Amino acid sequence: MRKIFLTIIYIAIYGLLPVFAGEIKGTIVSKDKPVSFASVVIANTTIGTQANEEGKFIIANAPNGQQTIQVSSVGYKTKTITVNVSANKSNNLLIDIEEENAQLSEVVVTGTMKETTINESPAPIQILNPTFFRKNPTPNLFESLSMVNGVRPQLNCNVCSTGDIHINGMEGPYTMVLIDGMPIVSALSTVYGLSGIPNSMVERIEVMKGPASTLYGSEAVGGLINVITKNPTKAPKFNFDWNTTSYLENNFDASVKAKVGNASALFSGNYFIFGNRVDINHDNFTDVTLQNRFSLFNKWSFQRPQNRVFNLAARYVYEDRFGGEMQWQRKNRGGDEVYGESIFTKRWELLGNYQLPFENEKVTFNFSVNQHDQNSVYGITRYLAVQRIAFGQLLWDKKLSKNHDALFGATIRNTYYDDNTVITQTADLKNTPDRIWLPGVFVQDEITAGSKNKILLGVRYDYNSKHGGIFSPRLNWKFSPDKDNIFRLSLGNGYRVVNLFSEDHAALTGSRKVVIKNALKPERSYNANLDYQKFFTFQKGYGNIQFNAFYTYFSNKIIADYDQDPELVVYDNLKGHGISKGVAFNSEFAFTSGLKAFIGGTLMEVYRVESNELRINQIQTPNFTGNYAISYAFEKMALSFDLTGNIYSPMRLPVVREYGDTRPEYSPWFGIHNIQATKRFKNGFQLYGGVKNFTNFLPKYPIFRADAPFSEQFDPSYNYAPLQRIRGFIGARLNIF
Known about the structure:
With 737 residues, the chain is mostly beta strands. The protein folds into three domains: 2-96, Immunoglobulins (Immunoglobulin-like, Sandwich), CATH 2.60.40; 107-227, TonB-dependent receptor, plug domain (Ferric Hydroxamate Uptake Protein, Chain A, domain 1); 228-727, Maltoporin, Chain A, CATH 2.40.170.20. Pfam families: CarbopepD_reg_2 (PF13715), Plug (PF07715), TonB_dep_Rec_b-barrel (PF00593).
């Protein structure tokens, strides 16, 4: 009987062999290097294997016919290929997979103005791509940056939602925002313009903390954010992303690329609309600013002899924004019956870079021009402004010797600014638009001292047509005892010319008047930054940790004083000095199980010391900020979950004690936490959804004297968190390559 049973089992197995007779074998590599222990699975089956240390694998029992193979490994993007399996033929594949964002070989340009990798860059740069930001979908760059450690988008008004970006606690004017390395988002455009940069045009974002004035000039005092737009030659053929929330916020992103002769073109658009008036705290004011905004972006990349660069891009943004009393209508705009803040914004930009046809020399001309028009009313106060900026930059990238890699640059920038406030008025009340010429020259030398040391020396000289010459030196030193440990020391001097933007939220949205006490001098900053980063792998994954200590000293700091008089905002150069100091920690871990974690925190002190040694903490600046993003992917189910959030310590807030304001001077500890699930389908289609602010945190006391918005006591600047309660969201995206 036993022999009969074994014979039946043998016949059954033998009869199935033709079905499972195929063999798939191959090698998994990335940039010609083997990827150890990668997972190889036949889609929609439980059949798979793991590559060995040399990246080689064999699947001996693969079903016949056309099969879809999924290759995944921690630190690499999942790759899907199709193979034909035959009983009489063995496949021998070479599968090249792409590294994830966190790898050492990621290309950056911000720290040195030339392409290099993260591990080779003398300056510490943080790179973030759209994949990271999709862990918590947002409609624009401004909101996305809340996920970056040490970077905090700050809303400055609870009515119109003006905002700026703080880096290491320093206020918005100290943060320079670049697009493709060009300073076209500044002054007037930063207040509402940052929300007009959609994710559809972004390839990656590079963040550099600390002064960068030697390369980028004025405004790069506290750090800079460089938005690298998509390359038309590498972008998906078609991309679409839509999401909506239970608040009825709707965001649409779409892009398409085309080949036109010897050029590649990318066309993208974004439309965001929110028209739902919400008043949770029953103060008769909209909790969230209504917005109707669209943005168009077009970029061309031209093929030229010897692969010389020629890119040209244009962007247009229009926005209609409103915040105010719930019963406000368009007919009330600028009137004194119903309080409302209504802002119309129109903005266009043109930018490009062109590599000049010099034989054996890399000389590039970068250029941009933009105009920002704003027509706004704040109650009965009308604010009309226009700003035009033209920028040109000539770069000569020259390899002087084996150990010396130099960069020479010459720039010129012209800024035209006009508005209907005292900023552009003479003593006899005549209108005089502000015009500033800012030519400059700079040079840097990247010195390679052996295999472990790299030194970057740089100097810059600018001549401001109002303030004269300004000199900025720079020193960066990178020491790498091995490929997994990197130490960086940065010493720099930054400056910020007087570019006082009169639309201070307290000046226009409240009752205060702007007073410029003296002729304002340029600010100076002196910064030291020490950074250590360690990369490591372990049996079930990889990770990296980063520690950073920073210290910045300010002289001639321009201060907006809210304490002298409850009816005034007094601008003057600080007679003492300002300090920003702290330590930061970043970590990233990824496991073969599908778990990934990004965790960071910054502990800092930002304050000013008056001439009488009185120390005053900066408003709306917490001593501690933390952020996290924890993800888990079920690869076989093509399903992933993301948990993201921020934690903030108490921050000093503007209160008006002279008018009986009893609100707390400091905010409480609080956090905003979100969760999301994403399901991937074939052909690049995804569905996602989740809950934002699932702990339902809401700030208290947002507006002082909301019952009397036209009075001198009205003040909406007491802001430390978005006024949005728990809300659900759903969305869909499609990428076709």
